[in-house]
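Hi V.,

Quick status before I head out on leave. The structure for the redesign project is tokenized and pasted below; the design run finished overnight.
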């Protein structure tokens, strides 16, 4: 007995035909961005995936049903719900949301789990969770999920609300390769570089696809991270962001905010304190990551379809019995 998944007709058809599909998360809609920027961004990300030739699959739990490929009306409904009324759904929340027939928005971890259940190999988002500054036991379940679920996650690193050096240590322990698209350095969300190294720089999404395909051939049970810097024209200066983050982190501590509320609180405060500037960078990188995710998914399909033809051809040669001219 396994939990059924509701797939949209378009996503079901794409998966059945072996075409490229990119998963998108829903926590950024309910807890990451304010209304109406959240709806606009979610729809713009779907459009960017399509422009790359892939099919978008925004994921959430709706009335307890695991849903892959939200309709526009579903996205609009989730986006307009008052913040705090939708469960933020990471790994431990999934049985609660499904068992109690709730609406829930999936985090990076929650989205990876469902994408993998549905057979989707690529997922695009903005920033992953990490290890919190000054609270090294507050390790996002996203990092552990990357260590246990084979989905490629396209992101702009993690926000520097987090302790990025410790975040990299946990990813190393979890066995997660980190690829930088056109960069040697881990991006820090609003800024193109954190100064910390990635494992390897790849020139194109197609080169990243070679690593993702190899991980699959190796039977890897872990994810791969493709880190993509925010487009240069939309970058925010590191110093500007840092001052705001220190203030927001201090406020969270003073107000006794903890657990799953920490990240949404910090995201909200940083957005308030940097105003429109941070929003522009945020939207630009989300849409760019959706486009890159589409390119990665398309390249992965091309590689693996070519690989399958290669295997068939060799088998044909060996048994010498097939091929149109031989019958
Ligand atoms: N970072 C962002 N924007 C977000 C999130 C993180 O810049 O919207 C969301 C993602 O859904 C991520 C989650 O999976 O927050 C991490 O929450 P936590 O730190 O509680 O694990
Ligand atoms: Mn946490």
């Amino acid at each position: 007995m396994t939990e059924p998944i509701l797939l949209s007709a378009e996503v079901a058809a794409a998966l059945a035909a072996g075409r490229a599909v990119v998963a998108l998360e829903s926590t950024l809609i309910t807890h990451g961005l304010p209304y109406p920027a959240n709806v606009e961004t979610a729809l713009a990300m779907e459009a960017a995936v399509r422009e790359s030739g892939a099919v978008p699959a925004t994921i959430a739990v709706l009335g307890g049903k695991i849903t892959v490929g939200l309709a526009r009306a579903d996205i609009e409904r989730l986006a307009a719900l008052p913040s705090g009324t939708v469960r933020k759904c990471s790994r431990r929340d999934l049985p609660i949301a499904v068992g109690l027939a709730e609406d829930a928005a999936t985090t990076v971890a929650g989205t990876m789990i469902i994408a993998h259940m549905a057979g989707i190999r690529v997922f695009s988002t903005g920033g992953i969770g990490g290890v919190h500054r000054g609270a090294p036991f507050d390790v996002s379940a996203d990092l552990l999920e990357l260590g246990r679920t084979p989905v490629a996650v396209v992101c702009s690193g993690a926000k520097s609300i987090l302790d990025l050096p410790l975040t990299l240590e946990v990813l190393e322990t979890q066995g997660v390769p980190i690829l930088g698209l056109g960069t040697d350095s881990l991006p820090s969300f609003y800024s193109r570089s954190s100064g910390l190294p990635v494992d390897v720089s790849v020139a194109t999404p197609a080169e990243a696809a070679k690593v993702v395909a190899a991980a699959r051939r190796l039977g890897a049970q872990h994810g791969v991270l493709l880190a993509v810097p925010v487009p240069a024209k939309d970058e925010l200066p590191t110093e500007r962001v840092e001052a705001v983050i220190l203030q927001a982190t201090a406020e969270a501590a003073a107000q006794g905010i903890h657990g799953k509320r920490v990240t949404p609180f910090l995201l909200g405060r940083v957005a308030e304190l940097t105003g429109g500037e941070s929003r522009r960078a945020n939207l630009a990188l989300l849409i760019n990551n959706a486009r890159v995710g589409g390119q990665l998914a398309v390249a992965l399909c091309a590689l693996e379809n070519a690989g399958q033809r290669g295997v068939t051809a060799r088998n044909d040669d060996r048994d010498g019995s097939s091929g149109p001219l031989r019958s």
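Above is the designed sequence. The mean pLDDT is 93.

G. will cover questions while I'm gone.

Best,
W.
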